[in-house]
Amino acid sequence: MHFSHVHTRVANHRLSGLAVALILSLLLLGLLSGRAWAVTPTYCSTGTTQWQGGSGDWGSGSWSNGNPSAQCDTVINGNVTVTFTTQSDHYGNEDTANTDGLTLSGGATVVVQGESDGVIGNWYNATTLNVGADGLTINQGSTLDIEASNATQTPPAGTPPIGGSANVNVDSGASGPANVNNNGAIVASTNDSAWGESFNVGGTIANIGSVTDKSGLLTLQGQGNTAYLFNNSGTFTVDSGASVTMLAGDGSAFTNAGNVSNQGSFTLQGTMHWNQNAGSTSGNPIELTGGEVLVDAAGAGAFEVIDGCGGGALTGTVPQGQTVTVQGATQGCSGNLGQQSVMTLGTGSNPPPVVNHGTIVLNASGSGKTSGGSAQIQGAELDNYGTFDSTITDSNFTTTLSTPLVNEAGGTVNVTGGQLYQTGGTPTTNNGTVNVGPGSTWLVQGGSFTNSGRLGLQVAGATSFGNFNLT
Questions:
Q1: Which of 58, 190, 366, 403 could form a disulfide with 88 if both were Cys (CB 3.0 to 4.6 A apart)?
Q2: Tens-place pLDDT, residues 279-305
């Protein structure tokens, strides 16, 4: 009996040792694969799941009806911060989480933290939160924080790039638009300029709260074939050194009735519209870089058409206190070098005149053939009650007026630094003031010039004076 007991104890110790070794091996395998060993979470299958408890990680399981999924809506209520990282949740091998809808209220904050991570043998540099057809609602006092960073969850094998972008997609797929209602705050930032942030919507954003890009590149991009409509009645702030690019297609638009403060850069790309209905822009100009349309009505601010391969369009009325500049630029255009920005007045056939109560500028500037370019206006008639400036700072380039012009009483046309060509046979009527600076020329060719106002040819010396040529 004694020896049998000893053998039993020895066998039990051997089994215990094997179990410990197996557990250690499994843990080591998990670590080597770039993942700590974890229990598969339970996901919400229907209805709504709500955050429970204090601040924590999205994937911690602190949910009333299982972790968020594409089949459920997600609600986070209360003064808590829920952080979503590459470790929080995964869709397949990707660092992605899904929810059909997301509502933040009561001071809640969701942080989408960009970073790098190894996932089942793959290396990823992005963290993405997908919101489906029920859309995203951010109530007053709550925040969506999109943070790209140079952080990493797992030590890399070799030399892959460290850090990652932070991305939020709101998209229903093929079932129609998915919308965003923001009465709180959306904040984007990065601590590494190599990684940016994106907020991509297949539907409409109604912003009556605030959107702030603190640093890095924030991309606003449409999803699928659904128009991206950004309706701003709140504030949109781009801090110094930060940049925003809105990439959108036909039917997409940024409609501003609030305030846009651009201390960095704000660029539109794609065949979309900026509807300036009210409100204002301040700081640096909003840049239209090819194919966009500025639909103008009201509000102070500045816009710039800058596209060496072509340009954009302007419709409506430029209000007092606003400046629209056609800025010459150099860029590659399908293998060719383009050096002329063009703004078309009006859209479609037989468009009505564009009315200017503010300032329109043709600016041909640059440095030889390496930068800058010519600037041109074409299209519908321009009725000028404000200021129309033609400015040339590089004699390699010119400005061109290819549209009828009526300079109304109280309106001013200034030509400085070079030649303004009006060679398309279009008529000009001057009931206001025209100033042609020393060394500058306004060439009207094939058209007409009817003067009932003041035509001033300025003189700086015996060989430096303004010229007006009608041929």
A1: 58
A2: 999 999 999 998 899 999 999 999 999
Counting Cα atoms < 13 Å in the Cβ hemisphere of 305 gives 32
Report CA 437 to chain centroid distance, whole Å: 39
Q: How far apart are the first and last CA of the chain?
A: 126
Burial class of residue 368 (count of CB atoms within 10 Å of its CB; 0-12, 13-18, 19+):
exposed
Structure tokens at 309: 């391969």
DSSP classification of residue 455: E
**Which residues is 49 bridged to in the sheet?**
74
Q: Pull the structure tokens for residue 351.
A: 């468009």
Backbone angles phi, psi at 470, to 5 degrees: -120, 115
Whole-model pTM: value is: 0.88
Report residue 33 as tokens: 């694969």
Report pLDDT digits (tens) over 17-71: 544 444 444 444 444 444 443 456 789 999 999 999 899 999 888 999 999 999 9
- Contacts of residue 108, Cβ cutoff 8 Å, sequence gap at least 6: 51, 76, 77, 78, 79, 80, 81, 82, 142, 143
Largest CA distance in the chain: 128
Q: Which helix (H) or strand (E) holds 3?
A: helix 2-32
For strand 311-318 and strand 301-305, is the pairing parallel, antiparallel, or unpaired?
unpaired
Helices (H), 46-201: none
Residue 199 CA to residue 189 CA, distance in Å, equals 12
Distance of alpha carbon 359 from alpha carbon 385, whole angstroms = 9
The answer to whether residues 198 and 127 touch, using CB atoms and an 8 Å cutoff, is no
Give residue for tokens 């102070």.
Answer: 300
Q: Where are the beta strands (DSSP E) in 279-397?
A: 280-283, 286-288, 293-296, 301-305, 311-318, 322-327, 331-333, 336-338, 340-345, 354-356, 359-367, 371-379, 382-384, 387-392
* Rounded alpha-carbon distances, angstroms, from residue 99 to 70, 71, 135: 4, 7, 9
Rg over alpha carbons for the chain, rounded to the nearest Å, is 30
Burial of 268 (0-12, 13-18, 19+ CB in 10 A): buried
